[in-house]
Amino acid sequence: MALALFLVFLYAAGTALVLPTPLEAVLAGVKFAPGWAVIAVATAGKFVGAYMIFYLAVCLKRLPRVQNWGATNRYARALMEFGHKWVDRFGAPALFFLLLIPGFPDTGAVYLLAIAGGRPLAFSLATAAAAAVRLSLAYLGIWSVAKYLGE
Fold it and tell me: What is the CA radius of gyration of the chain?
């Protein structure tokens, strides 16, 4: 059970960091551990992965080389302007609602908002909360279907 939960944690953190895959795949761990434990560990993994991205982005944005690149490259400037406007207008709650889309690979959205935003804790909590809600709803749906089918 401990190994399964460790793998769930790594996969959840990986979906925030590099894996463009849906988080709901961690529910395969329910075969080896209780559902509540899988959801809790996956949520923690998602928080840690998102916080690492947001914290790294905050540090990278302060580097003179990155600031110079953002000022001279028109595509980077347009992307940053869009990201800043989005973050200023909608903030972390919008990220929460965006990430509630079932099966949505959220790696790209997390990276864009990490670069544009400056509040790692707020955005990481929004990412983790959305992961908890998505996983809970998916688990309840799978559990209900299994009960209905008589398994």
Answer: 17
Residues 6+ apart with CB under 8 A from 84: 116
Output DSSP code: residue 29: G
The residue ranges of every structural domain in the chain are: 2-149
User: Could you give the CA distance from residue 4 to residue 24 in angstroms, rounded to a whole number?
Assistant: 15
Residues 121/142, Cβ–Cβ less than 8 Å: no
Q: Tell me: the pLDDT tens digits for 71-129?
A: 788 887 787 787 778 777 887 787 788 788 776 667 777 777 777 776 778 888 888 99
Phi then psi for 10, rounded to 5 degrees?
-65, -40
Spatial separation of the C-alpha atoms in residues 76 and 40, rounded to whole Å: 37
Strand, helix or coil at 123?
Answer: helix
Q: Which amino acid is at 93?
A: P
Cα–Cα distance, 133 to 148 (Å, whole number): 22
Select from 67, 109, 66 the least CA-distant residue to 90: 109
